[in-house]
């Protein structure tokens, strides 16, 4: 199941980022343990086992994606817009993952997002990880299963 | 003739992007309305003249399926075409939405062309200006 999620999640992340943001993930797996994460978005998949998916990145990348998406300059993007877009990215990734997994019993939770600080905000050992860069900024997606 | 469009999505960024896509598609839109969930959308439908609705499914307070049920139960509102825009493409969800009266659906992530083509199919090509609707170089 974990391997199935990894493959499906990787496909889904790339599809969402490329289709809606023209952002191409690069340098897969090359994320250091000392990255400073600043933005987090979370979504849950509720089924036989609850799966939490977390996206982490830098504020610079989140701003760049939001500016592109909204057709604004980076300095014009508000915190509300940035966090709203981070939430929507989590929503698209979660929804498309559910579709790809094809399990009718899974329901999608509502996404959430927030600013976080420092490398200590993520325990990389607590879940499975997919990492890559966009525009030389790091992105990490983790998922954990409970139950 | 211009038509009035209601965009329903809990994400304000997504509503802005959909609106921009529709504007760039060359549709003759008179007025845009926006709602963050199904309950707000029902209020908007009851107090404004709206010709077509683009609605998300996955929303807090009242989701898209509940919204479609409410629309279908109202003799006047059920004549307004609703296009569902959703992250979920599971057959069960899509069929449920279509059975509840949705005219069409668009999967997120989508391209501007998909929005244009679906909306054209629902409201008719006569509402699209022929000299517009090019997305070359568009990066949302």
Q: Would you give an account of this structure?
A:
The complex is a heterodimer of chains A (147) and B (140). Chain A has helices spanning 2-21, 59-70, 79-101; strands at residues 39-46, 50-57, 107-108, 112-115, 128-134, 137-146. With 147 residues, chain A is α+β, with helices and mostly antiparallel strands. Chain A has a single domain (2-146), classed as Chemotaxis protein chec (3-Layer(aba) Sandwich). In chain A, strands 1, 2, 3, 4, 5 and 6 form a six-stranded antiparallel β-sheet that branches. In chain A, a hairpin with a 3-residue loop joins strand 1 (39-46) and strand 2. In chain A, helix 1 (2-21) crosses helix 3 (79-101). Chain A starts with a helix and ends with a strand. Chain B is α/β, with parallel strands linked by helices. Chain B contains five helices and five strands; from the N terminus they run βαβαβαβαβα. Chain B has a five-stranded parallel β-sheet, with helices on both faces. In chain B, strand 3, helix 3 (64-72) and strand 4 form a beta-alpha-beta unit. Chain B is globular and about 35 Å long. The interface between A and B is medium-sized, with 28 and 22 residues.
Q: What is the H/E string of chain B?
A: EHEHEHEHEH
Mean pLDDT of chain B: 89
Query: Widest sheet of chain B: strand order?
Result: 2-1-3-4-5
Biggest sheet architecture of chain B: 5 strands, parallel
The CATH superfamily of chain B is identified as Response regulator
| Main sheet: strands, sense, barrel of chain A | 6 strands, antiparallel
- What's the architecture of chain B in CATH terms? 3-Layer(aba) Sandwich
The CATH superfamily of chain A appears as: CheC-like
Amount of beta strand of chain B: 15-25%
Helix residue percentage of chain A = 25-40%
Tally the structural domains of chain B.
Answer: 1
CATH class of chain B: Alpha Beta
Outline of chain A, from the CA principal axes?
globular
Q: How many distinct helices of chain A?
A: 3
User: Count the strands of chain A?
Assistant: 6
Distance between the termini of chain A: 14 Å
Largest contact between chains: A-B, 28 and 22 residues
Based on secondary structure, the structural category of chain A is: alpha+beta
- Termini separation of chain B: 26 Å
């Amino acid at each position: 199941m974990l391997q199935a999620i990894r493959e499906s999640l990787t496909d889904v992340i790339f599809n969402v980022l490329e289709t809606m943001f023209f952002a191409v993930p690069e340098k897969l797996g090359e994320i250091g343990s000392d990255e400073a994460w600043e933005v987090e978005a979370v979504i849950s998949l509720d089924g036989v086992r609850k799966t939490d998916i977390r996206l982490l990145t830098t504020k610079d990348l989140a701003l760049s994606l939001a500016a592109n998406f909204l057709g604004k300059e980076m300095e014009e993007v508000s915190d509300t817009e940035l966090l709203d877009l981070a939430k929507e990215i989590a929503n698209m990734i979660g929804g498309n993952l559910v579709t790809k997994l094809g399990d009718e019993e899974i329901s999608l939770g509502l996404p959430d997002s927030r600013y976080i600080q420092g490398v200590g905000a993520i325990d990389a050992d607590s879940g499975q990880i997919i990492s890559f860069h966009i525009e030389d900024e790091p992105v990490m997606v983790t998922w954990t299963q409970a139950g | 003739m211009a038509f009035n469009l209601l965009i329903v999505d809990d994400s304000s960024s997504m509503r802005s992007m959909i609106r921009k896509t529709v504007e760039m598609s060359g549709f003759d839109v008179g007025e845009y309305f926006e709602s963050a969930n199904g309950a707000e959308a029902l209020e908007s439908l009851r107090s404004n003249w709206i010709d077509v609705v683009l609605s998300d499914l996955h929303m807090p307070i009242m989701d898209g399926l509940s919204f479609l049920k409410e629309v279908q139960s109202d003799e006047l509102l059920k004549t307004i075409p609703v296009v569902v825009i959703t992250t979920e493409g599971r057959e069960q969800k899509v069929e449920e939405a279509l059975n509840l009266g949705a005219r069409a659906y668009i999967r997120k992530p989508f391209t501007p062309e998909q929005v244009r083509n679906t909306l054209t199919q629902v409201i008719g090509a006569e509402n699209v200006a022929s000299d517009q609707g090019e997305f070359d170089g568009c990066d949302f």
